[in-house]
Amino acid sequence: MTDLSGVAVGDELPPVSVRVTRADLVRYAGASGDFNPIHWSDRVATGVGLPGVIAHGMLTMALAGRVVTEWVGDPGAVCSYGVRFTRPVVVPDDDEGALVEFSGKVSELTETDDGSRVARIAVTARFDGKTVLSRAVAEVRLPKE
């Protein structure tokens, strides 16, 4: 867990990089119940105009959230989290998968009525050098000093 006592606006969270493979998509489909063939069939994905099989948007969102939860050390400290999906993560049919890189930055600090501090975190998710999520923001309750 990171020492969060001196958190300031502009602080950068440690980056997280994740390789997403077709096997990960199968596991996520089983866990979520989302068996849409665009997440496992190249024929169907390209048939609907996609560049290939794509990762589930909610999987990408969850992976992006890791940059926040790993930083704060307690997933229960996340008060809110939301994103907009802007670009798909195309997952090749190989052993390497797609490398997605996540980062975060403290964009705002506020104090609540009970004296707690809440950090607003701007999260960035990039695949192939391009942003795949926009307006990705988490609010995290920081431990009292």
From TrEMBL:
It holds the Pfam family MaoC_dehydratas. Residues 16-102 form the MaoC-like domain. Belongs to the enoyl-CoA hydratase/isomerase family. This is Dehydratase.
